[in-house]
Amino acid sequence: MTEHALLEVDDLTVEFPGVRALDSVRFDVLPGEVHALVGENGAGKSTLLKVLGGVHRPSSGEVRLAGERYRPRRPADALAAGIAVIYQEFNLYPDLTVAENVFSGREPYSAASRGIRYAEINRRTSELFAVLGVTVDPTAPVGSLTVSEQQLVEICKALSVDGRIIVMDEPTAALSADEVAQLLDVVKRLREEGRSVIYVSHRLDEVFALADRVTVLRDGRHIRTCDIAGTDPDGLVRLMVGRDVESVFHRDQVGEGATVLELAGVNAGRRLRDVSLTVRAGEVVGIGGIAGAGQPELSQVIFGALPIDSGTMTLDGRPFRPRHPGDAMARGIGFLHEDRKAAGNLPDLSIRHNLTISILDRIRTGLKLLAPAKENDVYADYHRRLTVKATGPDQLIGTLSGGNQQKVLLGRALAPGGRLLLLNEPTRGVDIGAKAEIHRLINALTADGAAVLMVSSDLPELLGVSDRVYVLAGGEIVAHLAGVDRTEENVVACATTGRRIFSEELSAR
């Protein structure tokens, strides 16, 4: 541990049923420094933050704050100790004002009127924003603010409790370039004020612009802590990766067919800008990038859930511009949402109803009523193809294991025809056995001529299952990786710095 550290984490281990999220992790923070915390998804960063923020309790190890044992039982304990964690998902009340959010739960009351002293909280909020060098109306409803302004409100909340250590989890994931620049200036001001900042980001350009030191986590373990001046982006990428893809994932060699999907100069929503790509029959095309790079929007555009502003799409060589998902499904396109719990399965409905909801027109009778016999035929087909472990078609999907729920949702995506599949995080939250089965299914589908566009934040999966990879950053495709250039190091480098490590550089090392 570093001498005179403000925060010290010593041999910290956190275990959940069947999973060791952190394994004897060491970490420390000095007074008045920006300490970056980096690693791939699943490296343990969020778990460590939640221990510091009083959300999770460690299984073993010790945390010390200013030399004293620190073991918060709830988030309020962390705030009282001067550790303020700003999570990627904001904890704000959109209908309350900025000042009400900043002082939520700690509002000063007037003994005479028995009401909140609004003039005081408005004044104090303005003073906090002045420390950050920005101006935000303390009386404005938070719901009316931009994402970057809401981020500043979260920082002001941290300052209002006299936060000695401010933790920022992917603070720029949803910000524009100008908003990112403003936030980086704010972080520098916090350091000048003597605050310590733990900065978690996949964006290495920000890490190198801000951090004094950087710690790399991988698979729940501490890999290295080093001065930012003593490393470089390529070296940091290698520390973050360190894994053999081929030992875990397998992709059968499948002959490429005709082009199924082509995008040319597509712009859509707030994210996608000038996106061009192709997907051919019999191949899996991977989409990589950090969170917030535009991956969900890309799938939504193709599926008709997000309108195109400009550019063109073709499907099997014909113009394609779906007005809604029904148009896409009618053309044989299936869609798997990245979050099966929030927007995927319907937990209170049966397996057969979850399977057939994407093809209701095909299983209706002449009176437009659902035909149970047709539903059961669909269930029997996909139960056999996907090896779903269930008691029968009427079992509620919510009672299945995570892996079997995911198989049912894959069946739903296949039901419209399986010509083109848009798979978002196809194995998120499933065990290794179910993951292998889903990968075998993807191989079988492409062997039959299906085209697959797969989004995955799991780099070994992305590279182990796909044939080519497009890397998104800031809503733009910054790289197309194939052959020997299709490596974890290149995906991370392109997503975080906009440039790749070419094969000749790798072979020279």
Account of the protein in words:
With 509 residues, the chain is of the alpha/beta class. The chain has two domains: 7-241, 3-Layer(aba) Sandwich (Rossmann fold), CATH 3.40.50; 246-341 and 418-507, P-loop containing nucleotide triphosphate hydrolases (Rossmann fold, 3-Layer(aba) Sandwich), CATH 3.40.50.300. It is 34% helix and 23% strand. The protein has 18 helices and 20 strands. The strands form four sheets. Strands 6-7-8-3-9-10 form a six-stranded mixed β-sheet, with helices on both faces. A six-stranded mixed β-sheet has the order 16-17-18-13-19-20, sandwiched between helices. A hairpin with a 2-residue loop joins strand 14 (310-315) and strand 15 (318-319). It starts with 6 loop residues before the first strand and ends with a helix. 44% of the residues are buried. One of its GO terms (molecular function) is ATP binding. It is found in: Cell membrane. It is a peripheral membrane protein. This is Ribose import ATP-binding protein RbsA 1.
In short, what is this structure?
The chain has helices at residues 45-52, 75-81, 98-102, 118-132, 147-160, 177-192, 204-210, 233-241, 295-303, 325-330, 340-343, 351-356, 372-386, 402-414, 432-447, 459-465, 488-497, 503-507, and strands at 7-16, 19-29, 34-38, 60-65, 68-69, 83-86, 165-169, 196-200, 213-218, 221-227, 259-268, 272-280, 284-288, 310-315, 318-319, 333-336, 420-424, 451-455, 468-473, 476-481. By secondary structure, it is α/β, with parallel strands linked by helices.
